[in-house]
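thread from #wetlab-drylab

HS: before we spend reagent money on co-crystallization trials with magnesium ion, can we at least see a predicted complex? here's what I'd submit
DV: go for it
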Amino acid sequence: MQISEKKLFLFDIDGTLALGDTMFPGSRELLDAIRAKGGVSVFLTNNSTRSREDYVRRFAEVFGLETRPEQFITSGTVTTAFLTEHFLGKWIYCLATASYVAELRAKGLQVTEEICPDADCILVAYDSEITYEKLCRASEMLQTCDAPYYATNPDLRCPAPFGFIPDCGSICEMLQVTTGRTPIYLGKPAPEMVFCAQRTFGFSSEETIVVGDRLYTDIACGINAGVDTALLLCGEAARADLETTQYRPTRVLADPAALYAELLTEKMV
Ligand SMILES: [Mg+2]
């Protein structure tokens, strides 16, 4: 696999291009080089608490990078796209924040937060406004309605200043031990984000590469979508993990600077 033949670069953000508010050396040069050769960089994140517009602002303010909303695919946006494709005109029962419910309705989807035995699908999203009453309603829906059950992302926890707070995966685990039902997750490692980016920008699987620092989410996502992958060793995964993982990346590189160097070297061959 020649990295220079790739056109659609799907990047994880944290641990891959940056750590918190600090970009890794080489990230900026890499993104510039991709654009200069007519490629597109897209950023995939399982964090559904920020909108695409929030990310555009954050990239400008924190990293000084100019981006467009379509360059960001969150587990929220990929779920909206999936529901629009498969459940338009049908009833969707939803456990989510008021703003996410409003976003789904703005796309023309029929969403209810009330008990609805005839619902065509059940969706659980990250919900920072969750209440016991909402959990009881979701439990009743999962036991009285056998419609397909989806959730935005499998992450169990998200970082907080003092450590971690529960993420969507933890809410789903609580519902799983209560009702016995497990959702189909639409965020990484499901392939939907890759398909969504390919549809938006019109590139083939051969032209697409997923770049990330986690084997069981980023690299698994690329493998599930049938595209090449590059693992960067500047985040979670270490070289030793490659010996035991079932998710084998196509390429392994130290960091964004190494990927950038690879792009330049290949061009001269
Ligand atoms: Mg990461």
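DV: The pocket of magnesium ion is lined by residues 12, 14-16, 212-214, 235 (CB under 6 Å).
HS: ok that's useful, forwarding to the group
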